């Protein structure tokens, strides 16, 4: 999918040095995420899903190989350049929401836009639209502690796409939720991704959710392979 790919990992290696042994997590791994594609990353705990997502999301540098975002090689960029790309072009959702506790849901979704230099009025309007889309618009003025787990994750997803990124990376975004809530939150996430033409890679242990995506990949012997 060379032409239509938005995110590419080419020959990516990542290893950790443990006392007495070396852990090889990624070994010349290749992966390509197509534009508008939604891919599930399914692998056992400890297999390296977070490592892969952090490397793809420019939070960690690979030991070898390169990460290309929309055809742009990110391997030799400075830390500042990587930070700018992370801020504008990559949305990240974690298992835990990581919302700022002292700010409202609306303000949390405005924040990435304000950091990017958007006017508060514009940021506020977009934040409310995204919260509405995630069906949590009525809770916009509430702080994270006043929201349910499912609502917190909806806000975190809205925040991740606030700057209209090229790619959404999610690390077990519904892993902390009960099955019913998990399904509702995933439905809203899926609708958002489909409607906006976003590309997404989502780590999940939930096979039912994985089945609903376009493709499933796993990590085996340091390689990323289709399931
Ligand atoms: P997953 O997300 O699939 O559970 P991780 O990517 O978190 O897997 O971890 C893969 C392996 O790498 C695990 O064995 C973990 O202990 C190890 N690991 C992760 N981060 C580090 C680190 N910073 N230093 C050493 N080992 C690490």
TrEMBL record:
The keyword Nucleus does not apply. InterPro entries: AAA+_ATPase, ABC_transporter-like_ATP-bd, ABC_transporter-like_CS, ABC_transpr_LolD-like, MacB-like_ATP-bd, P-loop_NTPase. GO terms for cellular component: membrane protein complex; plasma membrane. Keywords: ATP-binding, Cell inner membrane, Cell membrane, Membrane, Nucleotide-binding, Translocase, Transport. Residues 7-227 form the ABC transporter domain. One of its GO terms (molecular function) is ATP binding. One of its GO terms (biological process) is protein localization to outer membrane. The keyword ATP-binding applies. It comes from the Bacteria. Belongs to the ABC transporter superfamily. Macrolide exporter (TC 3.A.1.122) family. This is ABC transporter. It comes from Phyllobacterium brassicacearum.
